[in-house]
Amino acid sequence: MREDPLTQAGRWAALSRVLKGPSWVRHIPLTAPIRPVAHQAKLWFCRAHPRPRAEPSFQSTGSTVTQRPTLRHIVFFSAKDKADIHKIVEGLSLLAQIPHSSFFEVQRNTQSDQLSSEVDVVVYAEFESEEAMEAYKADPIYQQSIDLVRPLRDLRIAADI
């Protein structure tokens, strides 16, 4: 026998109030279809509702939650010759003089991960907008850093999130 839709909707409303997780999980519309999901050899039922892309990114810092900047720029570098890593760090450190980032950092990879040792240097920068990142890349110091680092590097992988 089929359950009354209002009773089923009431159960989902009650369940949505007790779920622990991001707000996009707790506020799934009751009209979204139900689909089975296999997780760790158990069968669960979730509402098929994608996470909204416009939701801001948050980071937990202990008991407080802080809003993250609009754009994070992460670049991984590997050196052709391991003896040149310090030169790569120095060349990339020039980028800290460009004023358009709200946070900028260049670090050597500690290489504590035993499965991956390809990355030698990491650049991490935060920007309040895409326009700020474009202005950062248009600065002459950016090109100067490229000219110093490009001949020394083997791999460059960038991600903007």
Structure description:
Helices cover 29% and strands 31% of the residues. The chain is an alpha+beta fold. It has 2 domains: 5-55, no CATH class; 67-160, Alpha-Beta Plaits (2-Layer Sandwich). The radius of gyration is 23 Å and the shape is globular.
Q: Would you report the number of β strands?
A: 8
Radius of gyration: 23 Å
Count up the helices: 5
Overall SS class: alpha+beta
Q: Strand fraction band?
A: 25-35%
Number of domains: 2
DSSP helix fraction:
25-40%
Succession of helices and strands: HHEEEEEHEEHHE
Tell me about the biggest sheet?
4 strands, antiparallel
Shape: globular
| CATH third-level topology of the largest domain | Alpha-Beta Plaits
Low-confidence stretches: 14-57
List the helices and strands and how they pair.
Elements: H1 5-18, H2 23-26, E1 34-39, E2 42-47, E3 58-61, E4 64-67, E5 71-79, H3 85-93, E6 103-108, E7 121-127, H4 130-138, H5 140-149, E8 153-160
Antiparallel strand pairs: 1-2, 3-4, 5-7, 5-8, 6-7
Features:
alpha+beta, Alpha-Beta Plaits, two-stranded antiparallel sheet
Summarize the structure.
This protein has five helices and eight strands.
